[in-house]
């Protein structure tokens, strides 16, 4: 096409026609043979290139088919300097270029070296080809002249100049040269150098052919003439002119040194140069015998425990049979014994000499505790006024403690809840936010347009390009309209006492002091058009390669998505790609849901408004919060508009906290209903229903209400006390502690009240003495559980996790206060109720009485006979016991295996209520965002940047340490870190064209030397290097990223400490959180240690369950040990079921596991003590008695109290409550009930404390004669 046009121009005059035919004759006579040149020497300027737009002088060579010249002297030296690959020694070097051509070539290559010199082998390969084209002694074999013109030379003569030619290159050389350059970076922009050398295709679509086409295009101002590069596959001669041999020299790899001793390219510019960083490897799965190691261990453990149990049965059977034979031979065991009153007893007579020291200690402990509690109960209830005094005194104490609630501090900040103030992440965050500004507040929309058809656009510059349905002019205009509406939000601010808008709180990086709306950082696709409707509508006819077509917004958008840092596109539209606030909009911040960087195929548009992250005590913090609320209101209104063409999700910085607070407020009624259900159950279950006529007399509505009030008062007293001393509370405490104390309190209430109802007042015994005696019987058991739980929780207060620590402290005091109030206020209340009941007065309406008298016999209710007659015998027969033991051993081993596979973490979606708009946002975020969160590596003061070694330790270009900071980050993240050091080094490059002038002060306009800038280096308090993570979608990925990055930061720190003159203390890693400005290290740090933290905390809680049980049972180690084993099994089984039910292990789960230990004590300790104090002759009978008597009370008091309230929580909207309060508490209650009422009786029947002779002897001889 160009040749035809040139022919027409040449034929316009006779002399031009003559010249044209002469030129064609010359071209036809040129032969492709070795040792000959196609052109030589500079002729003049190319008349086809506009001098005003050319970046280099468009000098073209003269057509000259002649032998290559032998180079000597200065000519040879210049060739050796510019094109060393053509040097064959002084006597044997030939070339087809003059010294002037070499100088022009050198000047031209200097421009490319500015961006390629970071990688010497790339710069060498780039120069290599142009040296071959210009100077090769075999020029005619690789070059074919295609166009010449008659021009006026520099000597004012007319000569034939070459203005176009073909260059034949082997694809082997071309691919290798391109490969050495494709990853070379431009630190100042963060982009690839190849993106500036590939025309419209940018770095992502660039190929060797496109790369060379751009180099040979004279219209870009970088090439003096047109070069048509032909890339020929090696060995393929089809279509080649005779004698042409495509150049196939050796291109250097990017990790090779150059012949001129240029160093290998750095890791950031050459992936082949990257060295593996030696950080601790990821822990490989534990395996044994080629299978899951935990599974193998669990199976082995199950087999061992089962075998040990069966062996025990066999040995026990054998020993029992031998003992029975010996007893028969001696005649022992025949007949019945007599007690001190000559009454028959079922046990053999025990001589005091047979009583062991342990038995005597047990008797002393039980006798002491029972007598003291009996004395206390009788004394306290001696007269009716005493009961009222006790109630009044209890109320006063509770009121004094609760007065602290006026200064209660409720912690809602996740950072304060889950991260200790002295934790590494907290200290790093504080240092980062103090030294640098906190990460800005994010307000974002992710918009889609499902169902809209895309189209293919045949671009003049870029060829056929697919556009998705959402990348349409109509939707871009609608997005711009929405963006403009949001930008124009105005509202009255009480804090500023004026109308406020976005410009008052926006993040304006280039004009932070006096910002306008156009200074605010708003990232979106319309920013590629500077938010201008005129720019979007702009279109122009453009001619490219002889083809004229219309270019419009699509051509501009394609270019900007691939070259977001350009100030001017390559179309005739001449529009900038920069946002109106002066910064680039990277494509991953404007579009999402694309593949392989085909941005126009994106499925989503992204609109982001960034606000300054003010401190909470800053007056503008409330203004920012108010703007975000207005933003939410506007977006919700827009979404509800039926004319909206978008389907989208959105969030504001305040959204997380707002939604958590909203769901908490909405679920408060659910908790109230839960407690109401529990209250109704307690009130109904405590009643005696022997006669319909006495139902209003025998009901226990007020007693149940009193029990609930005791629980509530104990919680209030605990919260008030800790508020007095400045320990903050949290929503977790408000939700969990009442439930825990209610479980403990209800159990004690049921045990106390049911024992009173099942006992008959003895002859001559007063009501107060009766209640005192009952209290003496049951209070030691209540003390055992309450003291175990309280000490357990106090030890849990040693946890380093603030939320766990405060929960444990609040729970410990609440349980302790609950026990104290039960021993005082509740006993007094029960006494008053018993007096009312004895006087046959109706409850609530005490003035009414009934005539039907109360039967003077024990009221066992329906549960005790049922368990005594049916449940206990069925559970404790010889076959059931074996099955129960094997089943529970299997459950334990299976749960142990599952425990090692529990998922650790807490995804933020779970904190949101069902139906929350934030759930849609998280779904869109994970689906459409193609880049991860920004990360920072921060150096503290002590690093010396002023030395060469110091600079090399942090930079990433050629010559830098191969294990420098940025090199290591590159090898870890695969996304390079932006380094100001690299920018500084480029600024120092004399060939960069960067102006180093003073912009202010007395030296304004004068050159600024690098040495003066170096003066500031040693005093830098800190420096940070930013990069981007790959997408992270759940807490496990965030935690793993944090762990690996900390290992990398430690590795970098150790390496930098080896640099002379450096005393750097630490390099740390900060991970910014996109949906929130808080730094996520603080939140996810807990999961690095939560397993060991949980093990430590639960172990601390288990210790008192053993110690207290042993002490209060008179150093009964066996009972304490069996107690401990059962609680451990409940805890392990709970974690195992958590794994099956999809409940992650995290701080909330840990709090519930600590609660599980406390509730397990209620299920287990009462039963263990009841068994230990039984005087039945055999283990099985004692287990039956404990199961019937105490098991029925535990079932009614713990299991049936918790279950109704827990089931109500299933109605909660918050997923967090459904999972960690409904599911987990249901698991804890069911497993506690199963182990306490099924497994423990069987375990005690086999391994329980041996016959305690002291209690039998006590029963037979009386206390005084025994002691």
TrEMBL record:
Coiled coil: none annotated. InterPro entries: HMGCR/SNAP/NPC1-like_SSD, NPC1_MLD, NPC1_N, SSD. It holds the Pfam family Sterol-sensing. It comes from the Eukaryota. Its main location: membrane. One of its GO terms (cellular component) is plasma membrane. The keyword Chloroplast does not apply. Residues 328-341 have a biased composition (Basic and acidic residues). It is found in: Endomembrane system. Residues 667-832 form the SSD domain. Keywords: Disulfide bond, Glycoprotein, Lipid metabolism, Membrane, Signal, Transmembrane, Transmembrane helix, Transport. Residues 328-347 are annotated as: Disordered. The chain crosses the membrane at residues 294-319, 379-405, 668-689, 701-725, 731-754, 774-796, 808-832, 878-901, 921-939, 1096-1114, 1121-1141, 1147-1165, 1186-1212. GO terms for molecular function: cholesterol binding. It is a multi-pass membrane protein. One of its GO terms (biological process) is intestinal cholesterol absorption. PROSITE patterns: SSD. The keyword Disulfide bond applies. It catalyses: cholesterol(in) = cholesterol(out). Belongs to the patched family. This is NPC1 like intracellular cholesterol transporter 1. It comes from Sparus aurata. The lineage of its organism: Eukaryota, Metazoa, Chordata, Craniata, Vertebrata.
């Amino acid at each position: 096409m160009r040749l035809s046009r040139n022919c027409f121009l040449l034929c316009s005059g006779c002399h031009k026609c003559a010249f044209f035919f002469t030129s064609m004759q010359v071209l036809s006579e040129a032969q492709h043979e070795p040792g000959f040149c196609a052109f030589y020497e500079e002729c003049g300027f190319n008349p086809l290139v506009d001098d005003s737009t050319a970046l280099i002088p468009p000098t073209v060579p003269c057509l000259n088919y002649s032998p290559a010249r032998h180079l000597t002297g200065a000519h040879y030296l210049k060739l050796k300097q510019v094109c060393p690959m053509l040097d064959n020694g002084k006597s044997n070097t030939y070339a087809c270029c003059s010294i002037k051509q070499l100088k022009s070539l050198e000047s031209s290559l200097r421009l490319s070296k500015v961006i390629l010199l970071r990688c010497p082998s790339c710069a060498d390969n780039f120069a290599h080809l142009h040296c071959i084209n210009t100077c090769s002694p075999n020029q005619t074999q690789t070059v074919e002249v295609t166009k010449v013109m008659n021009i006026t030379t520099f000597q004012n003569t007319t000569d034939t100049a070459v203005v176009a030619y073909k260059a034949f290159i082997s694809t082997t050389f071309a691919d290798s040269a391109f490969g050495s350059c494709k990853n070379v970076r431009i630190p100042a922009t963060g982009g690839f150098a190849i993106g500036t050398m590939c025309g419209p295709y940018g770095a992502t679509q660039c190929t060797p052919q496109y790369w060379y086409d751009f180099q040979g295009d004279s219209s870009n101002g970088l090439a003096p003439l047109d070069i048509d590069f032909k890339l020929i596959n090696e060995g393929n001669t089809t279509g080649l002119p005779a004698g042409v041999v495509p150049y196939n020299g050796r291109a250097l790899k990017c990790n090779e040194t150059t012949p001129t001793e240029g160093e290998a390219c750095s890791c950031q510019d050459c992936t082949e140069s990257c060295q593996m960083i030696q950080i601790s490897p990821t822990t490989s799965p534990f395996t044994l015998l080629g299978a899951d190691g935990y599974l193998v261990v669990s199976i082995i453990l199950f087999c061992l425990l089962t075998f040990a149990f069966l062996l025990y049965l066999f040995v026990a059977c054998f020993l029992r049979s031998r003992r029975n034979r010996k007893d028969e031979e001696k005649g022992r065991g025949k007949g019945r014994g007599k007690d001190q009153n000559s009454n028959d007893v079922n046990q053999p007579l025990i001589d005091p000499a047979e009583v062991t020291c342990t038995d005597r200690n047990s008797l002393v402990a039980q006798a002491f505790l029972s007598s003291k509690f009996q004395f206390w109960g009788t004394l306290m209830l001696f007269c009716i006024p005493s009961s009222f005094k006790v109630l009044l005194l209890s109320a006063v104490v509770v009121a004094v403690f609760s007065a602290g609630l006026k200064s209660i501090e409720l912690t809602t900040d996740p950072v304060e809840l889950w991260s200790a103030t002295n934790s590494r992440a907290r200290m790093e965050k504080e240092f980062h936010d103090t030294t640098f500004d906190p990460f800005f507040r994010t307000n974002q929309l992710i918009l889609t347009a499902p169902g809209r058809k895309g189209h293919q656009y045949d671009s003049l510059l870029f060829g056929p390009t697919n556009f998705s349905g959402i990348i349409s002019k109509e939707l871009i205009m609608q997005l711009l309209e929405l963006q403009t509406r949001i930008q124009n939000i105005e509202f009255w601010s009480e804090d500023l006492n004026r109308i406020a808008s976005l410009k008052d709180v926006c993040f304006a990086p280039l004009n932070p002091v006096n910002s306008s709306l156009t200074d605010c950082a708003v990232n979106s696709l319309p920013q590629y058009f500077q938010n201008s409707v005129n720019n979007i509508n702009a279109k122009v006819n453009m001619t490219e390669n002889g083809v004229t077509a219309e270019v419009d917004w699509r051509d501009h958008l394609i270019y900007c998505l691939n070259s977001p840092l350009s100030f001017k596109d390559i179309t005739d539209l001449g529009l900038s790609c920069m946002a109106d606030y002066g910064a680039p909009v990277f494509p991953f911040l404007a579009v999402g849901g694309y593949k392989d960087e085909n941005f126009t195929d994106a499925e989503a548009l992204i609109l982001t408004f960034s606000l300054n992250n003010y401190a909470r005590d800053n007056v503008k913090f409330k203004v920012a919060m108010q703007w975000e609320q207005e933003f939410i209101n506007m977006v919700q209104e827009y979404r509800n508009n039926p004319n909206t063409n978008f389907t989208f999700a959105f969030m504001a910085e305040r959204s997380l906290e707002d939604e958590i607070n909203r769901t908490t407020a909405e679920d408060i009624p659910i908790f109230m209903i839960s407690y109401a259900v529990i209250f109704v159950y307690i009130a109904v279950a405590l009643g005696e229903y022997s006669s319909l006529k006495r139902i209003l007399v025998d009901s226990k509505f007020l007693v149940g209400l009193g029990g609930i009030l005791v629980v509530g008062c104990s919680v209030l007293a605990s919260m008030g006390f800790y508020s007095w001393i400045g320990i903050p509370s949290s929503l977790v405490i408000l939700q969990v502690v009442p439930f825990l104390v209610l479980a403990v309190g209800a159990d004690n209430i049921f045990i106390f009240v049911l024992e009173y109802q099942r006992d008959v007042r003895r002859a001559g015994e007063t009501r107060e003495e009766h209640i005192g005696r009952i209290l003496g019987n049951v209070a030691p058991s209540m003390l055992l559980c309450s003291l175990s739980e309280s000490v357990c929780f106090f030890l849990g207060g040693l946890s380093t996790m603030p939320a766990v620590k405060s929960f444990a402290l609040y729970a410990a005091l609440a349980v302790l206060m609950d026990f104290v109030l039960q021993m005082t206020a509740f006993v007094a209340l029960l006494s008053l109720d018993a007096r009312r009941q004895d006087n046959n007065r109706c409850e609530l309406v005490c003035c009414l009485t009934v005539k039907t008298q109360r039967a003077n016999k024990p009221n066992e209710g329906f549960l005790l006979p049922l368990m005594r007659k049916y449940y206990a015998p069925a559970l404790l027969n010889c076959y059931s016991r074996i099955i129960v033991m094997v089943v529970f051993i299997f459950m334990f081993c299976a749960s142990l295996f599952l425990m090692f596979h529990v998922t650790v973490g807490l995804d933020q979606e779970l904190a949101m209520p069902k139906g929350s708009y934030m759930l849609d946002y998280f779904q869109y975020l994970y689906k459409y965002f193609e880049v991860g969160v920004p990360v920072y590596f921060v150096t503290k003061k002590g690093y010396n940047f002023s030395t060469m070694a110091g600079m090399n330790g942090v930079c990433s270009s050629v010559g830098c340490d191969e294990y420098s900071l940025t090199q290591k980050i590159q090898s870890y993240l695969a996304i390079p870190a932006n380094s100001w050091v690299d920018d500084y080094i480029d600024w120092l490059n004399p060939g960069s064209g960067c102006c180093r002038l003073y912009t202010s002060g007395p030296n304004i306009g004068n050159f600024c030397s690098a040495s003066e800038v170096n003066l500031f280096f040693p005093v830098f308090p800190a420096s940070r290097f930013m990069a981007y993570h790959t997408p992270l979608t759940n807490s496990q990925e965030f935690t793993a990223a944090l762990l690996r990055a900390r290992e990398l930061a430690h590795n970098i720190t150790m390496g930098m400490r080896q640099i002379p003159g450096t005393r750097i203390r630490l390099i740390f890693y900060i991970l910014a959180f996109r949906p929130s400005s808080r730094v996520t290290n603080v939140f996810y740090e807990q999961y690095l240690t939560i397993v060991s933290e949980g093990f430590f905390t639960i172990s601390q809680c288990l210790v008192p369950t053993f110690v207290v049980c042993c002490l209060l049972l008179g150093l009964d180690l066996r009972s304490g040990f069996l107690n401990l084993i059962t609680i451990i099994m409940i805890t392990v089984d709970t974690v195992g079921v958590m794994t099956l039910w999809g409940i992650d292990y995290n701080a909330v789960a840990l709090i519930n596991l600590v609660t599980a230990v406390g509730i397990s004590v209620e299920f287990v300790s009462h039963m263990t003590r009841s068994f230990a104090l039984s005087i039945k002759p055999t283990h099985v009978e004692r287990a039956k008695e404990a199961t019937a008597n105490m098991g029925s009370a535990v079932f009614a008091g713990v299991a049936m109290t918790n279950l109704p309230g827990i089931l109500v929580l299933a109605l909660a909207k918050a997923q967090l409550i459904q999972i960690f309060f409904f599911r987990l508490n249901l698991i804890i209650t069911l497993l506690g009930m199963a182990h306490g009422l099924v497994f423990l009786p069987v375990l005690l029947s086999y391994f329980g404390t041996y016959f305690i002779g002291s209690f039998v002897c006590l029963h037979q001889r009386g206390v005084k004669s025994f002691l």
